[in-house]
Amino acid sequence: MSETTLAEVSKAAKLRVAELAKRAQRASKTPSKSSAIVETTTIETTAVSRLPYQPEQIGAGAFGLPSVLCRAAVFTARGNSKGPRPMVRNELVGVVGPFEVRYRGEAQGQDDLDVLGVLFALWVENGRSRFVVSRHALLKQLGRTTGGQDHKQLLNSIHRLRSGSVDVLHAERGVGQVDGFLSKWGYTTPDERGQQLLEIEVNEAWCTVFGIAHWSRIDRQQRFALGRNGTAKALMAFYASGVAPFVHRYETLAKLCGLDTTHIRKVRQTIRAAHKALVDVGFLASYEAGVDNVTVVRATYTDSQARFLAKRSKPRKPRE
Hints:
Structural class: alpha+beta
Number of domains: 1
Largest sheet: 4 strands, antiparallel
Radius of gyration: 24 Å
Helix content: 40-55%
Distance between the termini: 86 Å
Number of helices: 11
Number of strands: 15
């Protein structure tokens, strides 16, 4: 290459740099779409992501949860208690179904599962797994008050969701995954009302947890009406992941909720009270607490569950 050509290239490069600098300066003076944040917004630079479920699949007034999380004691009833939570070190958790589930991190509770469910819903609503939302808006979506202690509890939940990790293995298919719930989170510039904004990215790996059909519908109003009743919330998630009829032993339900079965009599009382609470909020139509097990009947079903029940109720043709 000649010296003249090199000089021309150098001059062209300098002009290009100057042009880019002018563009950047103009862009900094132009309000971006993300600067007009009210409640939630997506990050404009994030590519369109896969959705964990379709809005019509779950419906209005509800959020979706991976069914495997509804059937495993990753989010326990005991985690709702006040005070420091224990660290779990890659331990097997109680599970119903053909799964092997391990968890590592600070113990998660049903209050954390509430937060995760709302974050999944915001992912679907925004069309992207990465979005900005105010703490105030999150608390409102969770049906909570917005005092200082509520903000602190919310941030603690987000910390646990970011740091915890779950190993899920489908024993029959031999497939699974090892992942946390949030890829990252942090603070960003407060909005025009001075509300603190959080930038959150949900881990997209949860899109592929054994297929899109394996998501359970959780009615927000019913769930949040249960308040701090962690046992009732754990049972609600479990029953939402399947269809009737349900007959389970107290020991199985206790394991699923992460309850200590040392004093089984007290555990049975807790489980019976939780079922009554589920009837009171309209999730269960009825339940029968026997000596060894509990039988429940759901009040409502999703469209797919109703179709399954209708198909199963049809008389089968006798084999020839």
